[in-house]
Design goal:
With about 300 residues, this protein is of the alpha/beta class. It has helices spanning about 40-50, 60-75, 110-120, 145-155, 165-170, 180-190, 195-210, 245-260, 265-280, 290-295; strands spanning about 1-5, 10-15, 30-35, 55-60, 75-80, 80, 90-95, 100, 130, 155-160, 175-180, 215, 225, 230-235, 300-305.
Length: about 300
Amino acid sequence: MIYTVTLNPSIDYIAEVSSFKLGSLNRMTRDLKLPGGKGINVSRVLKQLGHHSVALGFLGGFTGEFIQNWLIKEKVETHFTDIKEDTRINVKLKSNQETEINAIGPVISTNEAANFLKEIEKISSTDVVILSGNQPDSLPKNFYNSVILAIKSTGAAFVMDTTGQTLLDSLAFSPILVKPNHHELAEMFNVSFQSVEEMIPYGKKLIELGATYALISMAGDGALFFSANEVYQSNVPKGIVKNSVGAGDSMVAGFIGTLLKEKDPLMAFKTSVATGSATAFSDDLAKKDEVEELISQVSIRLIDTI
């Protein structure tokens, strides 16, 4: 079983304005409300690709009900932990440029956090848990470590898709996959990159520090894939970019779903690139037929060895 964890879900309120003017009245040309949160995105894409998962995390209030009902409609299984406060709403303003306004999120009580950890303890040694996104500020700073320790106590494997020190700390527990983008990779190691070649030593470092595989997404420059012995680079399929939200989560879904089914990390890499691109070319998240159309456009090449 694949489990996804979203500690700070949201409703993503997407507002389109033809030419946004700060300080003036702006009228929307279109709006859209979608369930948000990185782990939730992963579960939704896994379902589209034909892989079963269970979505875990915290949900509360009328906003939590909206997310729950949407996932029920899409036949995504959920075991969310109920909380007293409302799940947050994030605003995605699309105009001449794309602007995001992300809310802080609800306060999670000590009892609510403990109830969530009890759900983790039900996981078995044959499962994979995908930990995605940041945590609400109200949770202890080391809460992700508590979650990872609970996962490791069951014998399950885990994926870490977050940023900064939290991601670096997780490497000591041997995640099967980490997926920073190139900006996040630079920030983690306090460096800047002018070329793909400059990224390679730092991707290798993720493997040296404990990750089994690492994906580095680079937007229009494709993606890098690191394993214990090799480094590969992909191209980018052709298409019109409509949406940057959820593309990285889609890559995680495409990679893990394919890896567990096919046991082929390079096929998983190709699928991840196609899945992330399919989301980038859509208003919402990738659909199976869109991914299948793009896989043939994805090429990968060996660029280095470890």
